[in-house]
Amino acid sequence: MLAGSTHRIDRIVGLTQYNADDYGSAVAQKHGVGLDPDTFAAKIGASSAPSYFWNSSEWLCAKLGWRVRDMRQQLLPTTHTGPLSSTTLDREIPAGHATGMKAVVVTETHEGPVIETHCVGKIYAPGEVDLNEWTLRGEPDTTVTIRQPATPALTCAVVLNRLPQLLAAPAGFVTTDRFEPAPYVTRLETEAPPSFPSAG
Q1: DSSP strand E in the chain: where?
Q2: Mean pLDDT over each residue of the chain, to the nearest integer
Q3: Burial code of 65-80, b = ≥16 C-beta within 10 A, e = fewer?
Q4: Considering the entire predicted model, what is its pTM?
């Protein structure tokens, strides 16, 4: 919608930030929570596995009709100046150790525009909150910020609201760029409930 209201796009910059403590120990470990800098660099930073926003960048390019020329990614540790307590790992993260991970994906296109995404999952310090922010740079510049979204609830709802699209999808592997935006489902069309014989 923002792109449709923009005369020229030079760069799209996206940021999402979420509390790794909200998603369990597997996510915290995948984000390197608690690792010292050297271990983070070896185990997380050197990984070639695509981060969450890698696919989103490809999807945006497909939706906007841009051809990907190059994609690159950095997986960087987030840190804090003091110790932080992780509820999901049930331990304290020492100052200077990784509180999580910031994945930066830069996508260059043959058409010229660049998509730069920042996906930050970390253990929060006091006062930090979830954040979604997207900026379109060009003519004009536009920024949309959603501060403190209920990220786990929104994530679950979008999956459920996509179920009708899943049921209507053609057989085989369908990439998400072929989906319409997730709809708000007012009412699902279902078969009539089964009837039961009356008692007596």
Answers
A1: 8-19, 68-78, 84-86, 91-93, 100-109, 114-122, 131-139, 142-147
A2: 91
A3: ebeeeebebebbbbbb
A4: 0.85
